[in-house]
Every structure is written in C-alpha cells, then in structure tokens.
Specification:
alpha+beta; paralog of FGE (formylglycine-generating enzyme); four-stranded mixed β-sheet; three-stranded antiparallel β-sheet; 5 helices; 13% helix; globular
Amino acid sequence: MVDKESCCGPSVPATTHGAAQPVGGAAGVRGRDVGDMVLIPGGTFRMGCDRREGHPSDGEGPSRLVEVAPFLIDITSVSNARFAHFIEATGYSTDAERLGWSFVFAGLLPDDFQPTRGVAAAPWWREVFGADWRHPEGPQSDLGGRDNLPVVHISHHDALAFCHWAGKRLPTETEWEKAARGGLEAKRFPWGDDETPGGQHRCNVWQGAFPSDNTKVDGFYGLAPVDAFMQNDFGLYNIVGNCWQWCANWFDDEHRAMRGGSFLCHPSYCWRYRCAARSASTPDSTTGHVGFRCVRDAG
C-alpha cells in the first residue's frame, strides 16, 4: 500500500471547515432531484474489518457492532444529467470551475496534450487547467454522450451544495457501509468475498499493471455508467468502484471521508474498493474520479 494521497487522488491544501457555499444565484432555493432512492432498514450491523487488508492508518478495524437508523439512499451516484439540472436551476459554480483547474488521470489525456504539472508521488495525476465537471479531461472534452456517467471533479463543498438544493444530505460512513454491504455480514465486497464470482466482474476497477496497462476486461477504461454492473442486495449500483463517494464526516482534522474506490483502484497498490476500506481528501479537492451519492432520513 502507498499513501492515500498517491493512490486515491491528490489533495489541495486544506482551507476552512466551513459549510457548503451558498448556491450561486439562488441561495436557499430547493429543487427536485430525480434520482431514485431505496430504503435501507435500520438496526445493528458489523462495521469495519479485522482482516488487516488495508493500511493501518486507514482505521478500518477493529470490526464493531454499530446501530443505524433507517434511511433512504440514491441507488446510483449522482450523474452528469442530474448535476446539470441542479446547475441550470441555481447557477452554482463548482470549486474546480472557480479555481480554473482540476486533477485528471494522465491515461485519459490525448497523446498530444500539452505538458502539465504532475504530482510528485503520483505522476499519473496531472494538473489540467480548464478541467471541471463539464470538461472532465480539460477544455478539449465535453459531456457529449456522458449524461449517464457519474459527475466528477466535485469537491465536498459542491456535493453539500447539491444536497442542500435537493433536500438531501451526504451519508455518514456508517450509513454508507451499511448500504454497501447489502445485508451481508463481514464480506469484502457488496456481493461476497470473491472479487469476480464465476469470472463475472461486479465493479469498475483497474485490471492489468497500473498505471501503464489496463486490459479492460471489465469493459471499461475510465468511468462506467452509473447503473452498470449488478446491483447489490439493497438495489444499489456501483457502490464500490467507478468513482469515490464523499461522506459527511471528517476523517481527521483536515480531510473529509470518502468511500467506495474508483476505476483506478487495483489490489496491488490501492485495495480500497472493499466495503470496509476508507480514504479521505481535503474538502475543496477535485479530481476526475471523485463524485457522490445522497441520502435522506426515512419518514
């Protein structure tokens, strides 16, 4: 395992612990998010892992029994189409748009892309000016044909702004893990312990030698549609793999928790697409593999 800053995405320096910024142009306006939700039953479940499969600093273990109240959760990550509806209704400007750049995985850039600054510990991450949710790989890219892909280049601040508009919120790590496990007890993945049961891929992660060679045997090189692969037993799509999902709580004094892993995860260096795995980033960080899904209280 390597430092989470390298494998799970670079962070920008932390700024403040403030709440979500007002929704630009329409502060306080609530809207209707069209994402379908499913009820997750309340009760006690075993959270965390005793297998010591992650980095000790991630704090996956020890496993423990925790109580969670029933809640509703999006069956998919928020898509580009859903996020566009929010932007159209509010005029909100994301952190990446305001800052003018975001981190992009180098393997998604064209061969003739102009040289850009890389991250020293993770040269596959490139600082790309003009990259944001509308332009996932920079100014030369757009959202054509990507309505059903997860929205990315989203900061924690941006996710909170969407939630405020939609009348929803981000899940706690406890809620996220309860939902991800799909009712299964102490399993690595939402479907069990075998990553590819019967040779069938159940999530979008990296296959091959990272970062130089992706065999794409799961069918994807970058992001997959939000409803790709099989649902877990609670009816959730892509709860692991594809894109990281922001959670509500702090990981430490400067970083917000993220769960689920992404299309860049690989067991050789970042096995963080297991149900118990944790990562984090500063609240204003944006990358091409971080998005979110929403929850709301039941009843």
